[in-house]
Design brief:
Blueprint (H helix, E strand, L loop, with lengths): L2 H16 L1 E2 L17 E12 L14 H12 L29 H5 L2 E3 L2 E3 L1 H11 L7 E3 L15 E9 L2 E12 H22 L3 E15 L3 H7 L9 E4 L14 E4 L15
Helix pairs in contact: 2-5
Length: about 280
């Protein structure tokens, strides 16, 4: 069984059995028919993934690794807010007539600041410190810039990464304010696990732990029956991550520089309603 499957199962069971419903509150998200999209949630879930043990990918529901990598590189490498640069349409509903999601995600990572060592954006500062200041306890990124929130199509969900080098091992904490468990949990976990592997490789380090902190872990009301059916499935073995050993510059990675070997995932077999 994939460790990601076990954590997902445990999280969803906890949400469904011990969670709190928001049906007595006014909520922002809506279904396509205009009905409010209510959720059942648990506050403050913390999950640990040892990337030395296996690469965390759900098998209960097939995951699209290349598409997830494409979005990750769009944010972290291209530092873009233009959805036209994506190979998928997952951000289309949030974009304006010019394809922009405003000052969100990649835009924030690309803003440059002056330091004693020179001018860096957030990604380049992380890359510099991992190589030159690995003992630093200040290696992090933060997308939740309050002065720009009013110019973002969507406030960042996965908003902060904190990196910590222990010996020769790179560990990281992903902070997420909100997580749609069915549609986003598996996607985000494999994205940021891949990011840790990429940053470790270009910094001559070994990928260690990814700790995922979720403030509001929720399941939408119309997703509950789908999640319950997923939990009845038999998890499959975890795949193996291959990462091109010849890439030593973070900006040279492409979505084809990584692949999952031996990956098998159950098909979803039904359309998932989307809350916007």
């Amino acid at each position: 069984m994939s460790l990601a499957d076990q954590i997902f199962i445990d999280n969803c069971r906890e949400i469904l059995t011990c969670g709190v419903w928001d049906t007595d509150l006014s909520v922002r998200p809506r279904w396509e028919d205009g009905a409010p999209a209510h959720t059942v949630k648990r506050f403050g879930l913390v999950n640990r993934y040892d990337l030395r043990r296996e690469f965390p990918v759900l098998t209960l529901r097939r995951q699209f690794f290349k598409s997830a990598l494409d979005e990750l590189l769009w944010i972290w490498q291209k530092k873009s807010n233009d959805v036209r640069q994506l190979s998928t349409h997952i951000w289309d509903a949030w974009a304006d007539e010019n394809g922009s999601i405003g000052k969100a995600y990649g835009y924030q990572l690309g803003v440059k600041h002056r330091y004693p060592e020179g001018e860096f954006d957030q990604v380049d500062r992380v890359l510099y410190d991992l190589k030159h200041n690995p003992a630093s306890r200040r290696i992090l990124t933060n997308l939740y810039n309050h002065q720009d929130l009013h110019e973002m199509a969507l406030y960042p969900c996965a908003y902060s990464m904190t990196f910590n080098v222990s010996g020769h091992t790179l560990n990281a904490i992903l902070n997420q304010r909100s997580q749609d468990m069915l549609t986003a949990n598996g996607w985000n976990v494999m994205q940021y696990a891949a990011l840790v592997h990429m940053l470790a490789q270009v910094s001559n380090l070994e990928a260690g732990e990814l700790v995922h902190v979720i403030a509001d872990a929720h399941i939408y009301d119309r997703h509950v029956p789908i999640v319950e059916r997923l939990l009845q499935r038999e998890p499959l073995p975890a795949p193996t991550l291959w990462i091109d050993p010849d890439v030593h510059d973070f900006y040279q990675f492409t979505k084809d520089s990584l692949r999952l070997e031996g990956y098998q995932g159950h098909p979803l077999e039904e359309q998932i309603p989307v809350a916007i």
